[in-house]
Design a protein that fits this description.
The chain is of the alpha/beta class. Helices cover 36% and strands 23% of the residues. The chain contains eight helices and 13 strands. The protein has helices spanning 9-13, 17-47, 66-77, 87-93, 144-147, 175-190, 192-195, 228-242; strands spanning 55-58, 99-107, 111-118, 123-127, 129-133, 153-155, 162-164, 171-173, 198-203, 209-213, 219-223, 250-252, 260-262. It starts with 8 loop residues before the first helix and ends with a strand. The relative contact order is 0.07.
Length: 264
């Protein structure tokens, strides 16, 4: 008597493992062929100049002349492939005195948009001449009268407070000069209304930061660094002095927990 072998319907409908492997291998092969052909087509287009940068757009700037920026960008980027590494070119552009950071946006197939973060003046350094400086103490090649720079005046201990960096060739304030810049930034961020009452930031013979106010040339000693509590003391002091007829010549806020007032 013949033996009958029964197969379940689910088993009959499912493909064999071998067929699955063949189907998966065929898909991988097609994907690789598509990848190679796409890459080859892109390579041919690149070699023919299709992806060569032909137009560079620049964002609006405040202090950097647009024509100067356009010339710099054209010289650096035009004629290069849009796929090229732009890092070294951005670094080269960022070495310019008025440029702090550079970002690029590729627009296929042949356009590039360049945006620069400018170095902006925050103070005027009195170092023999009056020089605009940014928040890192770098000297900026800006015409003060042309740009109408009405900024706090800082006076470092000596005219030699400006040095030239070897690796960048840029002029920069030394440590004491940068301390004064930090003082200006602290006032700007925490109490900008008080900046209008200060005519000059300096450093005395004890290495402490001093302020000279617009109000009868009052000298205020702040300490090695300007701290939030010193600004609070100064704000309170201005309120008190506004209500008094007698004005001191020196106010020392550099000692912990006390305010020293001296009069001539």
């Amino acid at each position: 008597m013949a033996r009958t072998t029964r197969t379940s319907p689910a088993r009959r409908r499912s493909p064999s493992r071998r067929k699955k492997r063949r189907s998966g291998g065929f898909k991988v092969l097609m994907f690789l062929l598509l990848l190679v052909s796409t890459g080859y087509a892109a390579y041919q287009l690149d070699m023919s100049g299709y992806f060569t940068l032909k137009q560079v757009e620049t964002a609006e700037t405040i202090y950097l002349e647009p024509s100067v920026l356009d010339s710099l960008c054209d010289a650096l980027f035009l004629g290069r492939s849009i796929f090229s590494d732009l890092g070294p070119l951005k670094d080269a552009l960022a070495t310019r005195p008025l440029i702090k950071k550079v970002s690029c946006l590729r627009r296929f197939p042949d356009r590039l948009r360049v945006q620069v973060l400018e170095r902006r003046p925050v103070a005027l350094a009195n170092v023999g001449g009056i020089l605009p400086v940014d928040d890192e103490g770098y000297v900026l090649p800006l015409d003060i009268s042309r740009h109408r720079l009405e900024l706090p005046l800082i006076t470092p201990p000596s005219a030699g407070s400006v040095t030239t960096e070897e690796h960048t060739g840029r002029m920069r304030l030394d440590k004491n000069g940068r301390r004064l810049v930090q003082a200006v930034l602290c006032f700007r961020d925490m109490s900008p209304e008080l900046l209008g009452r200060i005519s000059e930031f300096g450093i005395n013979e004890h290495g402490k930061i001093t302020l000279v106010t617009m109000d009868r040339g009052l000298q205020v000693v702040m300490g090695k660094w300007v701290e939030p509590k010193n600004i609070d003391y100064l704000r309170w002091m201005f309120t008190e002095l506004d209500s008094r007829d007698d004005k001191p010549s020196v106010v020392d806020l550099s000692f912990e927990g006390q305010i020293i007032v001296r009069s001539d």
